[in-house]
Design brief:
alpha/beta, Rossmann fold, about 40% helix
Length: about 280
């Protein structure tokens, strides 16, 4: 059995370290990177994905495509903590000569794809899943998107493709934080019920009502990734953009806002002292 207390501690660690990175490199998208913390925590620290820090391209790895790359800066401390690269590199984010940029790409050990242009991760993941299926590999393909990213038509082409080819080795996780770049998502393109949409496209659908309850996140992802059905799977995780930073949690422009450097230490103290 997984130690839920350990997962909670690691999630807190990632949230704190992400804020520290933002203090040193204000250009990173901090609000987007705080909403999927518990998702990454469960996948990696919960051992739901098979990975090899010594050889990140190990053929026996599960494939994990982070389509919302700009919103995954919290992966930097996670990957360093797990030994994918030296922890000292975290001091160089967005600095000249560092491979840790504001938008991650495959030069970073642990990242599979280029993530700068949204809407393509799921299509790439479909290709990976189809290739693994053709090879009769038991390895999984998991992809993370944001909800705003689902405005891109290429995603729905990929959703149809996955259903057509019965990619039961493919799992999509939607970081459903309901805030896009310049407003609440519902004011840009209202997705209404994602559950109904994915059901209509013949996917196996699951929801996580609180994407920051690490026990709920872990249990759901464990159940989904262990399921064997003749269709692709999607997990709709209800999250809060900017989780841990109160003024970002409710702001329609949280995507493009920065946290003042002088406020970050106080926020870190609050997070560390929280249950």
């Amino acid at each position: 059995m997984i130690d839920i207390a350990y997962l909670k501690e690691r999630a807190k660690f990632l949230r704190v370290e992400t804020l520290k990175i933002h203090k040193a490199a204000p250009e990173v998208r901090v609000a987007s990177s705080l909403s999927p913390v518990e998702l990454f925590t469960s996948l990696f620290y919960g051992k739901l994905l098979h990975y090899n820090p010594v050889d990140p391209r190990d053929e026996n790895r599960d494939r994990f495509v982070i389509s919302k790359g700009h919103g995954s800066i919290c992966m930097y401390p996670l990957l360093a903590d797990l030994g994918f690269f030296d922890k000292a590199e975290l001091n160089n984010v967005c600095k000249s000569g560092s491979f840790l940029g504001g938008i991650p790409d495959p030069i970073i050990p642990g990242y599979e794809t280029v993530n700068g242009s949204l809407g393509h991760g799921l299509g790439v993941a479909c290709g990976m899943a189809l290739a693994l299926k053709t090879k009769k590999s038991a390895k999984k393909t998991v992809v993370l998107t944001g909800d705003g990213e689902l405005n891109e038509g290429a995603n729905w082409e990929a959703i149809m493709c996955a259903a057509q080819h019965k990619l039961d080795n493919l799992t999509l996780i939607v970081d459903y934080n309901k805030v896009s770049m310049l407003d609440f998502s519902k004011n840009i393109i209202d997705l209404n019920s994602l559950t109904e949409k994915f059901n209509a496209f013949h996917w196996d659908v699951y929801e996580i009502e609180d994407g920051h309850d690490v026990e709920q996140v872990y249990n759901t992802l464990h159940r989904v990734l262990s399921a064997h059905k003749q269709k692709p799977k999607v997990v709709i995780a209800h999250t809060i953009k900017g989780k841990g930073v109160p003024f970002l949690e409710t702001h329609p422009l949280s995507h493009i806002l920065s946290v003042k450097s002088e406020d970050i230490d106080g926020l870190i103290e609050e997070i560390n002292n929280a249950d």
